[in-house]
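Worked example 2:
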Amino acid sequence: MIERFILKDLVAWQKSPYRKPLILRGVRQCGKTWILNEFGKRYFENTAYFNFERQNLLGEVFSGELAPKRILFELGTLARQKIIPGKTLIIFDEIQACPRALTALKYFCEETPEYHITAAGSLLGIALTAPDGFPVGKVNFLELAPCSFAEYLQAADSSLFEYTNSIVLQEPIPGIFEERLSKYLNEYMTIGGMPAVVDSYLTDHDINQSENIQEEILKTYELDFSKHAPIKDIPKLFLLWQSIPQQLAHENARFIYGEVKNGARAKDLEDALRWLESANLIHRITRIEKPEIPLIAYEDRKSFKLYLADVGLLRKLAQIPASSILVNPDIFREYRGRLAENFVLQQLSALGVSPIHYWTSGNMAEVDFVIQDNADVLPVEVKSGLNVKAKSLKVYREKYTPPQALRFSMQNLKLDNGLLNIPLYLIHRFRDLRQTDRITNRNSTPCGE
């Protein structure tokens, strides 16, 4: 079983004296329903689960006055169980199918705060973009991403995962562990982090079956375009979605509207682009002109790159054979760099790093990502292999003298004159390791400086 790290955040929500109804967001099929039911099973006496898509008449409970006590009584009757404050976890699944239920969360917050109420939905992000009736300020949010590499590693080899948590900056990782960690990284780059794919691969180690599940997930997403998107945007969504792997194949990977459709401009595709973002299917990473806080003040929203929510789905959408990663990664060396970028972005997002941008200096230099971590703005270079020459990162460091620079690559862990190289498979430790870097630098500073 995959242990999802978000459980600790759910427990913190459960115990918080400031708790409000919780909305769990995330891309379709990333495991929202499963994690809420697992949370209820582990930490509550019972769970009351309601699905607004499957239970056709459920919406009628919310059709009258939105009185929480009445609604809870009727829900308990429907579920044939007593809903007890503090002991029952209430789950509203596919809540986007009942806008009145979304509105009701406001009244649950105000009138019945003693109940533990959660909500999720496959396209909840789309529903939340509609301002009418949304309970602003009356709900808590959590974001569930696809399984991270750390979660995959823990499920695949728990002892090796524990070993990664013992690694210290002062010592290189022994070759025998590098080899094992690299193997699991290649597996993850192939299958990605969608729970159904991960579970299948860990159970059977059948890459063909895992690819079939990836194909089904991609088809489900495309069906969503036709079922849930505005009619005028459906053709644009298909064109946008299919163009992402091609756009990433370009030398600088910057998104170009005209390559989606001849003559297309921002105003033609912006609504469709926002739909994909709201559905959590893509990450839009915008360029910044200057790496200073607040980064949003220096954001150029006209220049951006698009990545997928999951690196395994990007590989599948780009039609890269699984064998070319698992057996011979050098076959597609150039595109592997884009997969590595998508991987790093996916892991940083899962760790709650925000905001994330990229930086360019004309046509002379480009840094893959610029992140804000607490009060620090850090350049991040991504390399898919052992070759780590990075002229752009050098230009950036000389120009802005950041407190630290990060490089994720396949080189061993090392600190070199303020540049911290972290192996891709150790990305979940980046905060610990960069903190060690800061302590090391502080302890080595001569007196009087």
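The first strand starts at residue 22 and ends at 25. Residues 149-442 form one domain.
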